[in-house]
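SEVERITY: medium
COMPONENT: batch folding queue
REPORTER: lab tech (J.R.)

DESCRIPTION
The queue accepted two submissions in a row. Attaching both inputs and their returned structure tokens so the on-call engineer can compare them side by side.

ATTACHMENT 1
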Amino acid sequence: MDSSDEAIEAIRVYLLDGHEVSRRGLRDLLEEQGMVVVGESETAAEAAARIPALRPDVAVLDARPAGGAGIEVCRRIRSIDKSIRCLILAEDHDEQVFRKTVLAGASGYLVKQLSGQDIAAAVRRAAAGEVLFDPEEEDRILSAAIEARQSRPGAYEGLTPKESRVLELLGQGMTNRQIADEMVLAEKTAKNYVSAVLAKLGLHHRTQAALYVAQAERRRHGPHA
């Protein structure tokens, strides 16, 4: 394999960290592991502006960089391009930060006390499409957030009639093609409706939409419906 092949296959990473020394150390670590750091920022605003254009495989985001939250950067990036995986890097385990990390659609939550090898391994797993959270813990957090959203007055306001119908069909487990056939739409149009519904409800994937519908039905008809 020549160097050009290696460059093509290398994992592309973007770094956001408010401390230059930490950022430099992380960059050196990842580059030693054969990854390519395509960009780095000290502030959240700069990262949010640059990452969508650079399209790294993984963005490693400090939870609390200067000028804003890395978690919000993750939320914005994932709303624009879900192919970019995000890892949140925190000083220590904080339950509130962890919960926000899950809800932002990140692939994992890392503490800075982890060894360099563990951080590099997490980046590789995220680049491969893995989610590093415990599935039961992730479901618990998402379920609580969905239930809280549904309990607020006007929780369903903001969806158009067609979007509401798309949500119902997502709850039935339909694919984009099946939704398109059911609603007599082009498949691309159905996909756009699905994306709009997920964005308006603050959800990140179709299984969350199905859970949202199921919980709404239980709330409407009672647990034995």
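ATTACHMENT 2
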Amino acid sequence: MIKDHETLTSNSGNFTLGFFTPQNSTNRYVGIWCKTQDFVVWVANRNQPLINNSSGVVTISNDGNLVLLNGQKNVLWSSNVPNVTTNSSFQLSDDGNLVFCETLTGNSIWESFNHPTNVILPNMKLTSYKRSSEKVKLTSWKTPSDLSVGNFSLSVERLTISEVIIWNETRPYWRSGPWNNQIFIGIEDMGTLYLNGFHFEKDGTRGTGDLYFRADDCGLVIYRLNSQGQIHENSWSVEKEEWQFKSVTTL
């Protein structure tokens, strides 16, 4: 159980799960931040914040799901997995993945990496499925102070001639150009390892395409889709102990 003003930190110390309030807002959210509390990388209750309320609790409910409750014990967010064992626990991994798992076996029941918000972290995969319209994709915040789903999303499209598209609602807003098995050809100055170590892999058996980058390729680097539909590269400066930003998309 995690109450407001309590936190859960990864073993590396880089990532923390807890309650926070964005700038220019009084709403409380549960999320994961990296290094500094103002650098949020995942939000649970983005569409149902705690309003002027610091009595929220993250816990495991009677049906076995990981949930966020308000002071009246109403469920504001749930992992929403059917037929969950009641003998379960949750932990925050060193790569920022909140993992809800069976206590005895350690098998994963639910992971935040499969339900991203507006950030892609090292080892997280954005996935497109050939046989369905289902996608693991990024969705922007509405504004920096309103974390509900905004107008922009980013997804991998088409497994035959694959590319990354940023959508403004239902309209294409930016394209990476096709993947030629080494680079996305529409991105200027793109090396054979996209930016800091991006890779794109197709799995014909599963019928999927996965876009990801490895932590060992690039250190602590994170990509964020902002509320204006732009991708920013964010790298942690060990010397300055601060985040440094660079725009990736040219619109």
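NOTES FROM REPORTER
The CA atoms of residues 69 and 75 lie 5 Å apart.
No errors were logged for either attachment.
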